[in-house]
Amino acid sequence: MDVITTHVNADFDAFASMVAAKKLYPDAAVAFPGSQEKNLRDFFMESTLYILSIERAKDIDLENVHRLILVDTRQKSRIGRFSTLGNRDNVEIHIYDHHPDSEDDMHGHKETIREVGATVTILIEEIRKRRIEINAEEATVLALGIYEDTGSFTFSSTTKEDFEAAAWLLQKGANLNIVSNMMTSDLSRDQIEVLHQLIEESEIVNLGGIDVLVTTAGAEGYVGDLAILVHKYKDMENLDAIFAAVRMEDRVHLIARSSLEEVNVGEIVAEFGGGGHPTAASASIRNMTLFQVKDKLIAILKEKVRPKQKAREIMSRPAIVIEADKTILQASEYLNRYQISSLPVVQNGSVLGILHRNSVEKAVHHGLSAEPVNVYMNPGVLSVTPDDSIENVLQLTVEGRFRLVPVIEEGKIVGVISRSDLLEHMKLPRRSDSASPDEYPQTRLRGKSVRKLLEERLPKKVVDILRKAGQVGSARGEEVYLVGGAVRDLLLRNHNLDIDLVIEGQGIPFARELAAQFPGCRIRGHEKFGTAVILFEDNFKIDVATARHEYYARPGALPTVETSSIKRDLFRRDFTMNTLAISLNTRTIGHLIDFFGGSRDIKERIIRVLHNLAFVEDPTRILRAVRFSSRFGFAIGKHTLNLMKAAIRMKLFDKVEGKRLLNELIHMLEEKNPLSPLTLMDGYGIPQALHPALNFTPKTMELVESTIGVLSWWKYLFMKDQIDSWSVYFLALTDNLSDGDFKSVVERFSIVGDLGRHMASERILVRQALALFARGIIEKPSEIYSVLRNLSLETLLFMMAKTMREETRMAISEYIINYRYVKPLLTGKDLIRMGYEPGPIFAPILRTLKQASLDREVLTRSEAEDLVRRIFPIKKKEADRDTISLDS
C-alpha cells in the first residue's frame, strides 16, 4: 500500500503537493497526519473539488504500508503517526520538499529536494516531464499552493521555476479569481482583536545591532490564519524580523518571519519542535505557558542570531605580503605561487600600498623584473580594523574601487578582504574558474550544523575523541577541524573512520596535548610537515596536520608546503567535494565549513576541480576523478572533464613519477568493483596516456571481471594469508603485453627491484604451467604441487582467473586450499631414529614422502617408514653401525 501525506497544520502548498503527488502515484491513499490551517478548511467547505478522496490517518493500517510519499516536509516530528514508518526496513520512502535541512529530517530512498518557493512547483515539473494531464480544478488547487508559499510571488524565496509552473497552470485553466479570494480574505473580529494585542504587547529585542520584534497575544477560542496576521503586522511596521507567540486553547502557536540573513527563523523555531524556512517558520507548542515560550525564545535569539558581521569574520588570513625591497620578478613568483591577484607591500610590518598582477605583468614585459616593487605599487591604500563593519569595507571597495582591503590591528596587517569575500557576503555569484583560494569567498562558520549527523553516524568513542579535540583546541586558542573524506562520506551517509584533523596553529604540540587526554596513546610526529599520527590503545588512529598551503614548482612535481589557514589548506584538495570541514571547537562544534561549494556538488553528485590548473599541477587527480566518479556514481563536471581531456592530450602524465602513478592505480584496483573505474579510464584514453603499450581490450576487461570473481572466492575462504590484490589485477591488465612491453610498463610504474623481477619471471612460469595443464599431463596431486609450489598466491589467483579450463581451475584451488599445507608423515628426526645418516639423502626422502602423502599412497607413519625402507634401503655399513650401536 502507498500513502501520501504531509505535515500537521497543513497549508495550501501541502495540500496542493498532495494533489500533485496523487497524479504521480495514482494508486496511493491520501491522508493528513493532523490538522489543517483554517484557510484550507474553508476551501474544503466551499470547493466543489471532490476528486481527491482523503482518508483519516487513524484508519490506515500502518502494517500494510510499503511506500510512504512525503510532500512539503521531511521532519519526523511533523507527520504524526506516520513517523514510525521511517524505522521499518520494508517501507520505501519518497520525499518531495523545498525546506532547508534540519536535524529532525527523515531520509528517503528517493529524495527530490530543491530550493524553490513552493513544494508543488517540484511536483508540477515532474508531472510535466511525464506528460500527465490535469483539469482546471486541479490546476487551481496547485496554483493556490504556489501563490500562498511565494506570497503571490513577492517572497525572496520565489524562483523562476515557480513562475514557470504558475504559467503552465494558467494554460491548464487555473482560476485566478478563486486564488485571489482565498489569498485576500477579510479579517474577522477575533483576528482584529489578536492583531491589536500583538501591536500592544510588542517588544524590540536588540541583538548586536539587529532589531527583532517579539510579541504575544491570547485568545479564548481558535483563531485561524495567524500567519496572515503576522505578515500584515510585519508589512504595516516595515519590520525586518518578527516572532509572534499566540496562546489558543491548549497550546501556544509561534509564527516567525524574517527578511534578514542574520535571523534564520527556521533554525530558531526548530528549537520548539517546529520548522520552516530561514524567512518563514512556525511551531505548535504544548505544555508551556505564553510567558515561558517568550522567555525561552529570547534566550534562543541571543544564542542563535548572528550579529552583523565584522571584518575579522570574512577576512582571509594570514595575509600574504611582500616586502618593499623585493623585486618585480620575486613579486611575480609570489603571485603565481600563491595563486592570488594582489599583494600588500609592507615595510617593517606597515602597509605601504598594493601591488596588482597586471602591473607586475606589464613591468616584466618591459624588462623591469629587477626593479623594487614599491616603485610600481598603488600607494596610500585605505584599510580597516578587524572590528570594522562589513558596510565600511563595502564602502571602501565600491566607492574607493579597491580590489583588496588590508585589515590592520595595532599597526600590523593581520588579514585581507578581497572582492570575492564581499560578493559572498552579499550572496552574489563567484567565479567558477578561479585559480586562487582568495577568489573564493571567505564564509567561515556560515554553513549548517551537522552535529547531530556526526553523533548519529560515528561511533561514540570517535565522537568523544573529536569533542575532546575541540576542547583542547579551544583551550589552546586554536581552531580545530575535521576534514577530508570523513566529512564527505558523512554527508553521503557512507562509513568512513579515516579521521583527519587540521589545526590552525601548531599541529604537533596539539597532537601531544590531545594524546595526553587518553591513557596508552602514542604519537608519531613529522616536524618537516607539521603533521602527527595519534595511535590509540585499540590501534585506532587519527592524523593531525597543521593547516598548510602547497605550490608546485612545475607541472607534475611534488608540492612545496608552507603553513597557512584552513581556507588555503582546503584549497589544495583535489575536488570540491573533498574541501569540506567541520569545526570541532567547543563554541562551534558541528558547523560545516564550505568555502568552495562542496556540499552543493555532493548534493548534485558532481565532481569539480577548484581551478583550471588542477590537472596541470597534479595529473594524478585525473585518476582520482575517475575513481571517485565510479565509487560514488558522480558525474564529472563538463568543465572539469574538458580540463581532464586537455591534460591527457598534453601528455602531462609523462611528468609524473612512476611510483605516484602506481599508488593511484593501486587505490583504483582496490576499489570494491575495479571494473567500473577501469572501464571509465579506457573510455577517456587514460591507459595509453600512462604507457603506449597499455591497451584495455574487451578480452582484458573479461579477464579483470574473472579476476574479481576469483578474488571474491579467495575472500570468503577466510584464510590467514595476506595478499596484494592489486598485483593480481595488474597481471590481468598486462596479460596481453609482450615480455618486453611488460618490462617497460613495470619500469614506468617504478615497480623496481625484486617485485618487478618476480612479476616478470612469474608471467613466464604461468604460461608454462597453463600449457602443461592444457596438455592433460598434470593429474596427480603431487604433480599439481610440483608445478605450482614456487608460485606466489597472487600469481596462482591470476592463473585461476586466466584459465578457461575448469579442471585447471579446480586443481589450483585444491592446491591453495589443501595441497600446499600437506607435510611428510616423517621428519628428519624420524629418519635418524630409523638409522639414516643425516645428509643430502634426506631431501629426496622427504620429497618422496610428501608426494606419497599428496597422492594418498601412504596414510600412516608405519606405511611411510615401509615406503622409505623400500625406496631408500640403508646401506650395509650403516646397518652394521646401527647394530653395533644397539648391542653396545
TrEMBL record:
<protein>
    <submittedName>
        <fullName>tRNA nucleotidyltransferase/poly(A) polymerase</fullName>
    </submittedName>
</protein>
<dbReference type="InterPro" id="IPR001667">
    <property type="entry name" value="DDH_dom"/>
</dbReference>
<dbReference type="Pfam" id="PF02272">
    <property type="entry name" value="DHHA1"/>
</dbReference>
<keyword id="KW-0460">Magnesium</keyword>
<dbReference type="GO" id="GO:0046872">
    <property type="term" value="F:metal ion binding"/>
</dbReference>
<dbReference type="GO" id="GO:0008033">
    <property type="term" value="P:tRNA processing"/>
</dbReference>
<keyword id="KW-0808">Transferase</keyword>
<keyword id="KW-0547">Nucleotide-binding</keyword>
<dbReference type="InterPro" id="IPR046342">
    <property type="entry name" value="CBS_dom_sf"/>
</dbReference>
<dbReference type="InterPro" id="IPR000644">
    <property type="entry name" value="CBS_dom"/>
</dbReference>
<feature type="domain" description="CBS">
    <location>
        <begin position="315"/>
        <end position="371"/>
    </location>
</feature>
<dbReference type="Pfam" id="PF01743">
    <property type="entry name" value="PolyA_pol"/>
</dbReference>
<dbReference type="InterPro" id="IPR002646">
    <property type="entry name" value="PolA_pol_head_dom"/>
</dbReference>
<dbReference type="GO" id="GO:0000049">
    <property type="term" value="F:tRNA binding"/>
</dbReference>
<dbReference type="GO" id="GO:0016779">
    <property type="term" value="F:nucleotidyltransferase activity"/>
</dbReference>
<dbReference type="InterPro" id="IPR003156">
    <property type="entry name" value="DHHA1_dom"/>
</dbReference>
<dbReference type="InterPro" id="IPR052390">
    <property type="entry name" value="tRNA_nt/polyA_polymerase"/>
</dbReference>
<keyword id="KW-0129">CBS domain</keyword>
<comment type="similarity">
    <text>Belongs to the tRNA nucleotidyltransferase/poly(A) polymerase family.</text>
</comment>
<dbReference type="GO" id="GO:0000166">
    <property type="term" value="F:nucleotide binding"/>
</dbReference>
<keyword id="KW-0548">Nucleotidyltransferase</keyword>
<keyword id="KW-0820">tRNA-binding</keyword>
<keyword id="KW-0694">RNA-binding</keyword>
<keyword id="KW-0819">tRNA processing</keyword>
<dbReference type="InterPro" id="IPR038763">
    <property type="entry name" value="DHH_sf"/>
</dbReference>
<feature type="domain" description="CBS">
    <location>
        <begin position="377"/>
        <end position="434"/>
    </location>
</feature>
<keyword id="KW-0479">Metal-binding</keyword>
<dbReference type="InterPro" id="IPR043519">
    <property type="entry name" value="NT_sf"/>
</dbReference>
<dbReference type="Pfam" id="PF01368">
    <property type="entry name" value="DHH"/>
</dbReference>
<dbReference type="Pfam" id="PF00571">
    <property type="entry name" value="CBS"/>
</dbReference>
